[in-house]
Design goal:
Layout (H helix, E strand, L loop, with lengths): L61 H47 L1
Length: about 110
Amino acid sequence: MADEPFKHGPDSRPSPETPRSEPEILPPTRPGSPLGDEGPGAGDRAWSSYGFQRIEMRRISPLRLFIWALIALSLLVLIAGTMLIALPIIAGLAALSFGAAWLRRVLRR
């Protein structure tokens, strides 16, 4: 783009540079490709040194979404219920501890 002179006017931006080479995209079924049926890594579904893996994208059905929401809500209710039960018990133990310390100090005099 250094060869083109800079134009002044309403369209003063230079045109985009065309790439010098195209990236080669290897289909997974091509022989010799990392995830092909033959060669290194054939049948390997785990993460490999190649840095990529096949990912399957599926739509979430409304029933499955409802089930996950129900599980999340039940966990939230379980945690909140545990806290609502545990907090008064902890507060009662703290009050008993302070009361015992005060009573020990009063009776020691």
